[in-house]
Specification:
400 residues; three-stranded antiparallel sheet; 15% strand
């Protein structure tokens, strides 16, 4: 059946992480992504290190399946090119600071004059309303603002941000879901609309459990390290060589753990009889578990616990995932040959569809790699017209 979004064209004027992650999702699902980059340095993510073959690892991770077109969108001639592309597009995605799109002439009200059926997607730091709507914001800052950092880290230790860009890429997921819903609605009604989300709103949704728990208890949640506020034992535990994670979320699993560790007496101990009691007495229980686990190396315990049906895992290093049998079995890493970076393995979208294809087909583009292709094919521009625009500095037709 091909890809589910084949035939959908997206004009993408985003930079950095969150916005390009939206169009990465849509591109992997089959949409044609026309990535507009500024002359000179292009997407800010191209400058984010480390680099491989001169290409940013950040950029490589979220810009596959796209066409790079270099246009100076601040110049009147550049704006006109964007308007002409929007007339032929289905979706427009931007992540400017609040009000900047309107200043540039790319606000929703302006663009829908060219294409009333357009799906216009905005992704921002703080949202489109409220006293902080004009503030700049990045992933770490919004993790702090929404309380995520206050519940991340080890007890009595410093607060830390999550080690991945959870709000950038989480917001991208919500934005992509919104775009898909808007496309479905347009198919029914013919009506385009604006879809918006923000890192702030995403952060608030991620801490929803803690917000509700606070209303129930009036207590601020505590940092749990690798632990879990609702379950025990659930943590990273030291063994004779390295830590392993054990996750027990109900009484049946605790019984399996007690049997595997030869501590059936725990099942008669009122401190450990139920999940709430184990949470209340987690410190005593953890001390007993650690004393046992320190007697053998991690692999011995992992083998024993897995055989007993107790959820557990080693704390994997990132590099080990490249040759992990399970990673390879589910086909999460796609092999891509990039003209500068060479052979790289890029994670695909974590989606499988029984009748449609979702895949990484093309390497992340070189800066301006598709300027000639897109402007000639989409807008019918001649070689002479393109050369004139390049002489004026409006476009770039070659990799810089």
């Amino acid at each position: 059946m091909g890809k589910p979004l084949e035939g959908i064209t997206v004009v993408d004027v985003t930079n950095n992480i969150a916005g390009p992650s939206v169009t990465m999702i849509l591109g992997d699902l089959g949409a044609e992504i026309i990535k507009i980059e500024r002359p000179g340095r292009g997407d800010d993510a191209r400058g984010m290190g480390p680099h491989i073959g001169g290409e940013s690892c950040y950029f490589l991770n979220i810009n596959r399946n796209k066409k790079s077109v270099v246009i100076d969108i601040r110049a009147p001639e550049g704006k006109e090119l964007i308007y002409r592309l929007v007339e032929k597009a289905d979706v427009f995605v931007e992540n400017f600071r609040y009000g900047k799109a309107e200043q540039l002439g790319f606000g929703y009200e302006r663009l829908k004059e060219f294409n009333p059926a357009l799906i216009y997607c905005s992704i921002s730091a703080f949202g489109r309303n409220g006293p902080e709507k004009e503030k700049p914001g990045y992933d770490g800052l919004l993790q702090a603002r929404t309380g995520i950092m206050k519940v991340t880290g080890v007890p009595d230790g410093p607060s830390v941000r999550a080690g991945v860009s959870i709000l950038d890429q989480g917001s991208a997921m919500w934005a992509a879901i919104g775009v898909l819903a808007a496309l479905y609605e347009r198919k029914r009604s013919g009506i385009g609309q604006q879809v918006s989300t923000s890192l702030f709103e995403t952060g608030l949704s991620w801490v929803g459990y803690h917000l509700i728990a606070y209303q129930a208890t009036g207590e601020e949640p505590k940092k749990m390290g690798a632990g879990h506020a609702a379950f025990a034992p659930y943590d990273a535990y030291p063994t004779a060589d390295e830590d392993i994670l054990i996750g027990v979320s109900n009484d049946d699993l605790f019984a399996k753990l007690a049997k595997a560790l030869n501590r059936l007496d725990w099942l008669q101990d009122p401190r450990y009889a139920t999940s709430p009691e184990r949470v209340r007495h987690r410190d005593e229980l953890d001390r007993e578990i650690i004393a046992i686990l320190r007697t053998k190396p991690s692999q011995d315990w992992l083998d024993l616990l897995e055989e007993a049906g107790v959820p557990c895992s080693r704390l994997n290093r990132i590099g080990s995932l490249l040759d992990d049998p399970q990673v390879n079995a589910v086909g999460m890493l796609c092999d891509v040959n990039h003209p500068s970076a060479g052979h790289i393995r890029i994670p695909r979208l974590p989606i499988l569809m029984s009748a449609s294809e979702v895949s990484v087909d093309t390497a992340p583009p070189l800066h301006g790699q598709h300027t000639v292709e897109v402007l000639s094919e989409k807008l019918g521009m001649s070689e002479a017209q393109l050369e004139k625009l390049q002489e004026q500095g409006i476009i770039e037709m070659v990799h810089s």
